[in-house]
Amino acid sequence: VGDSSVLTCLIKGQVSMLTWTITPKVGDPCTLVYRINTNMTDRTNCSDNISWTFRAGLAPALEIRQVKIAQEGNYLCKVASTDGNFCRTYHLTMLAPPRLSLYCDEQDSPMCEAVAGKLPAQLSWVPGSSSTAEEKHQNNRIVTVLSKFTACSTNVTSVTTCMVSHTAGNWSQSIAC
Fold first, then answer.
1. Which range marks the domain in which residue 162 is found?
2. Of 75, 92, 109, which one is at a domain's C-terminal end?
3. Which single residue of 35, 91, 175, 176 has CA 20 to 30 Å from 100?
4. DSSP-assigned letter for residue 83
């Protein structure tokens, strides 16, 4: 989410036309067409951050600037050329890093939240803890994960650290309750 992505087609032979058909999980489909012989482009129902990108020596590609969660879905490229017709499909899945929130609850126990991540984060504690994480699911696979620190022994330091592991990165934060 927020990054840019460039998708390319398989090119064989002398290409006459490239077509991208985008079917998002939510919303209406979008189509982009590029006719090589006339150097004409056409677009139907596509958001402004989706467009062709032309680079010297490379085939035209589809560029998505500042990708949004709503653009998750299937991206199908069709190529018409002298060697035949070719297709390539991409399935675009978004990753959104969670926001880390660490605080002390009413009983003065450390609480760690990985808020609004797309896919769920894994939480762990230093020093070790016997706590389990609770997941709260929202739409579009957005998940908040909550964990309360539960000491494994009575010989625990006053500072605890919450470690967050996610496919979009890893973070940690410490607190003394």
1. 99-176
2. 92
3. 91
4. T
